[in-house]
Amino acid sequence: MLIDGELASSGAEFDNVSPATGLVLGTTSAAGAIDMDRAIAAARRAFDETDWSTNRALRQRCLEQLQSAIEADKEELREELVAEVGCPVMTTQSAQLDWPLAEALRYPVRLIDEFEWERTLEGGGLFGERNVRTVVKEPVGVVAAITPSNFPVEVILNKLGPALAAGDTVVLKPDPNTPWNATRLGRLVAEHTDIPAGVVNVVPTPSNEVAAMLGTDPRIDMISFTGSTAVGKLLMRQGADTMKRMFLELGGKSVSIVLD
Q1: Which of 54, 55, 91, 164 is most buried, by the most CB atoms less than 10 A from its CB?
Q2: Is residue 243 part of a domain?
């Protein structure tokens, strides 16, 4: 786990099982309620008390560092993808790894410079009065990123990149069936970037109760979720009380039926 800039262990673990063989590949630290609370608190503090949300040059440099670190570990990521997703190596040479690695961080980095963060609207005021209207784009705040098991690297990078480039902080909860890519990314953030403590937190957990904290905690401003429609509906209900913004990619088309 990565919580508040430090690699951490809860003391509890869960098995990472290969979907191809049914064998246990290894174990992963399992976040409990205390760990999740610490991660959310760290993300809130990093957004409210550091200059991450306003320092565009820092965000750009840090994302470029993360890009370089991921590229250096690309083959290890590939091996983990094949093992824990059960996908063919060929798919990692396209949508599973190589394609998102080429653009998922680089494009948001470019937008930090190119995006129109502030603009003045044309048009005068009513009844001859002078009226100046300015639109300012600001980060949302703390984003809970909840990712699925089928394309872990692709979805994680495409959630992390835009959120971090915009100035948000993130609590990443990967699918418990594919935690290793996420925990590796957490280690790269901690060891190879200048990303401030608390900006990125990685909290794998097999517990639905612990994961549900992301939907109910008022310190979370937005939920970015890719997964089932049923869970998407649940997150909408949970987030309604605190008016969380929602980015939901629901349903799926990845099911295969194998007759043996």
Answers
A1: 164
A2: yes
pTM reported for the whole predicted model: 0.92
* DSSP-assigned states of every residue in 129-178: ----EEEE-----EEEEE--SSSHHHHHHHHHHHHHHHT-EEEEE--TTS
- Domain span at residue 62? 2-115+134-250
Number of folded domains that form the chain: 1
CA dist 35 and 196 (Å) reads 19
Is residue 260 in some structural domain? no
Cβ-based neighbour number of residue 233 at 10 Å: 12
pLDDT tens track for 113-172: 999 999 998 876 667 677 788 999 999 999 999 999 999 999 999 999 999 999 999 999
CB 66, CB 195: distance < 8 Å: yes
Q: Is residue 210 in a domain? A: yes
